[in-house]
Amino acid sequence: MIKILDGQQIHKSFHIDKEKIKILREVSITIYEGEFISIMGPSGSGKSTLLYVLSGMDSFDSGEIIFNNQRLTACGEKELADIRRQQMGFVFQQPAFLKNVTIMDNIVLPAMRDNRKKVKALTTKAQQLLESTGIGQLASRMTNQVSGGQLQRAGICRALINEPKIIFGDEPTGALNSKTAEEIMDHFLQINQEGTTIMLVTHDPKVAAKSERVLFMKDGEIVDELWLGKLLQQRGMENRIEKVTRKMLRVEM
Ligand SMILES: Nc1ncnc2c1ncn2[C@@H]1O[C@H](COP(=O)(O)OP(=O)(O)OP(=O)(O)O)[C@@H](O)[C@H]1O
């Protein structure tokens, strides 16, 4: 198995007034190429902070992070920004899109920064991604002319356009109804089956149950882990959800 992301002994604190609050306490996590990992835990346990730190979006006090053989600790801001843009994809709960710009342009424009001469190829690729997430007909719509679920699908297309090594999702289904959330999760599953590593932060056992491994955080530490194995067919979902829920409740006690 090839390590794609390796974080060791990560510490992070925030300073509020004169008080130092420890948010991540000696967190170590190794993610292998092709894995699908979920991070769960009570509110405030440090899940999003861990995701931002691992993806080079946020700083940390001490520890080491190696992503795709690159030491993030040794990278400057520009280098980190390049890595994020070229090798990582991000999907957030509320995707931020440029207003008064079409869905297509919202996907293609950020990617053009690294592929200036390939507008045509990028447009073709974006259209394929839109088709595969079921919103091919919405390419020329403005972002305020589509639903939340459709916008989230567009967010996934934008995250995938540069063929990232890993997709980070922070509550990507948190703002969606359960049917749409399920459909979005199935897109994540498909992307993972096609080889992209995925790391999601979620509160929802139904979401986590689709992943291969679930890590549980509490008070800034990874305190437990559940191996579910790859979900190849939807069979056994109830059992997986039950396992995740049981472990989640035990961690939150
Ligand atoms: N910029 C900041 N300054 C100070 N404290 C912060 C900052 N960002 C987050 N925190 C604190 O760090 C802790 C962890 O926050 P984080 O968002 O990582 O938790 P979480 O597990 O993702 O929570 P939730 O499930 O509610 O999103 C919380 O106590 C939060 O208040």
TrEMBL record:
Residues 5-244 form the ABC transporter domain. It holds the Pfam family ABC_tran. GO terms for molecular function: ATP binding. Transmembrane segments: none annotated. Keywords: ATP-binding, Nucleotide-binding, Transport. PANTHER family: ALPHA-D-RIBOSE 1-METHYLPHOSPHONATE 5-TRIPHOSPHATE SYNTHASE SUBUNIT PHNL (PTHR42798:SF7), LIPOPROTEIN-RELEASING SYSTEM ATP-BINDING PROTEIN LOLD (PTHR42798). Belongs to the ABC transporter superfamily. This is ABC transporter ATP-binding protein.
